[in-house]
Specification:
Layout lengths: L13 H4 L14 H21 L29 E6 L3 H18 L2 E6 L3 H10 L6 E4 L2 H9 L12 H7 L9 E2 L2 E2 L2 E7 L2 E5 H7 L7 H13 L3 E3 L11 H24 L8 H14 L8 H7 L16 E6 L3 H4 L2 H4 L2 H4 E5 L12 E10 L5 H10 L6 H6 L17 H11 L4 E3 L1 H4 L2 H16 L4 H10 L4
Helix pairs in contact: 9-10, 9-19, 19-20
């Protein structure tokens, strides 16, 4: 097997999103630095071809929507010692991000200027249209990134990163989420593990509950907790205009756990319809929990009206009023401050179990913040991208809590507690990581009818009717 054979060849997102915008180039002339870098890239490519018989990104194709040799000219300045980044991080996250940049800035002499914008997904499109792009952008979902990549506005990563090295160090599957026409246009710099079940550790230990290894064992555990007089599941979906997104994560989890990554990817890229029988079955399986008698704290009305961040609060009462919560690694930031202060003693976690127990770790549902390079003319911006997407980035942020590296090779001693280390290990050892489906689907569905459909479903609509209506809303 040569170096080319060991990569994912299937396009998970690209085929479903490539028609979002026409392929085009900015049309600006290349600067002297670009000409120099193109020449260097040609030598590098020749060496790579000689050594392995392929480009670093084996799926790379000339029809990717990028410019000459994949270089994108957004008419930006270079060599000025300043690299600009636009993202959505604010508050403590911004402070911890900037703290993680400080050692690199001191060593490199590059001044990284980060701007926060809570409406990043809208702002970045506006700025690109106006020709006012930052050097680097942080995308919370792959859809918007790929839309701009299809317009030729974003640099393919194989033109400035060691594709083989980053593909090897990342948890498996993440690069597939930003592949368009066979080429990758972004790289993750932060990971979310969304396949976690949380529980109040003291109450759990006192009751003697055991971690389930299969979905049937999870159902049996739920029945036992209910028989003990405790509502099994904590659940809250209210997120104002985004109410319902928690429900979409649940469905994504069941599609992945019941049918596996291949079916999951076919569903999220619309190779099979939203109302495929396998997807209807996933809704029904989730219904055993969400619609089961006495299974969810407060019932459907409470689920829809309770803020997401309040979901686990009843589990820490004495006695606990619910026991289990399926939520992403960011649940840590939702927990009461007193619980966060003693995390390892207060909460436990286990991976959401598959249908059948195997020696291999189950696949997980994940999310990531994706760094993308707009300014392919700037060696300094490229150096920053290399740092941000490496396993050397994030130590200071990890130590502060609330951040996971997407790299299996990251030094886990930087994580501040065992709970976070366990969550990171679940992702690192996963047989596959698939990207959050609602973030991959067209906006009309992913953050539209899928969200609202979940609310209608938990309030009584059937699985078949819900999936059929969502399928009908999929853009033609």
């Amino acid at each position: 097997m040569n170096a080319c054979d060991n990569h994912h060849s299937r396009v998970v997102v690209g085929e479903g999103r490539s028609a979002l915008a026409p392929s085009s180039n900015g049309g600006h002339g290349m600067g002297r630095l670009v000409r120099r870098r193109i020449a260097a890239a040609g030598v590098t490519a020749l060496v790579a071809l000689t050594m392995s018989g392929c480009l670093q990104d084996p799926g790379a194709s000339a029809g990717s929507g990028a410019g000459l040799e994949g270089f994108v000219d957004n008419n930006q300045s270079d060599g000025d010692g300043v690299v600009t980044i636009l993202g959505a991080y604010g508050g403590d996250e911004k402070a911890n991000f900037e703290k993680s940049l400080a050692p690199f800035e001191a060593e490199s002499g590059i001044d990284i200027q980060y701007t926060e914008d809570s409406d990043f997904t809208t702002t970045i499109k506006t700025r690109v249209s106006a020709g006012d792009t930052p050097d680097i952008g942080f995308f919370p979902q792959p859809g918007g990134l790929l839309e701009l990549a299809a317009q030729g506005k974003i640099q393919p990563v194989d033109t400035f990163l060691d594709y083989d090295a980053i593909d090897k160090s990342l948890v498996p599957g993440l690069l597939d989420s930003v592949r368009l026409n066979g080429r990758v246009y972004g790289a993750p710099m932060r990971l979310a593990n969304k396949s976690i079940v949380w529980y109040p550790k003291k109450a759990w230990d006192a009751a003697g509950y055991q971690v389930p290894k299969t979905l049937d064992e999870l159902y049996a555990l739920s029945d036992k907790i209910k028989a003990d007089g405790i509502t099994p599941w904590c659940m809250a979906w209210n997120a104002d205009q985004a109410t319902g997104w928690v429900g979409t994560d649940w469905i994504e989890q069941f599609v992945l756990s019941v049918d596996g990554p291949d079916v999951y990817n076919q569903w999220t890229s619309h190779e099979i319809p939203f109302d495929d029988p396998q997807i209807v079955k996933a809704f029904d399986e989730f219904g055993r929990i969400a619609k089961g008698d006495g299974m969810v704290y407060g019932g459907a009305k409470t689920v829809v009206n309770t803020q997401v961040a309040e979901s686990m609060v009843p589990s820490f009462r004495n006695p606990p009023e619910c026991m289990l919560e399926r939520q992403g690694s960011f649940e840590i930031s939702f927990l009461p401050k007193s619980i966060q202060a003693d995390l390892d003693n207060e909460v436990g976690v286990f991976p959401f179990p598959p249908v059948t127990a195997t020696a291999e770790s189950p696949p997980i549902l994940g999310g990531a913040d994706l760094a993308a390079l707009f300014n392919g003319n700037d060696d300094e911006a490229i150096e920053v991208m290399k740092f941000l997407t490496s396993d050397q980035f994030g130590a200071e942020w990890a130590q502060a809590g609330g951040w996971l590296s997407p790299h299996r090779t990251f030094d886990t001693s930087n994580y501040p507690n065992q709970t976070t280390k366990d969550i990171a290990e679940q992702a690192a050892s996963a047989s596959a990581v698939v990207f959050d489906g609602s973030d991959v689907m067209p906006k009309e569905v992913g953050s539209g009818t899928f969200w609202t459909g979940m609310v209608e479903w938990i309030q009584g609509k059937s699985s078949a009717d819900t999936t059929a209506e969502i399928e009908a809303s999929w853009p033609k």
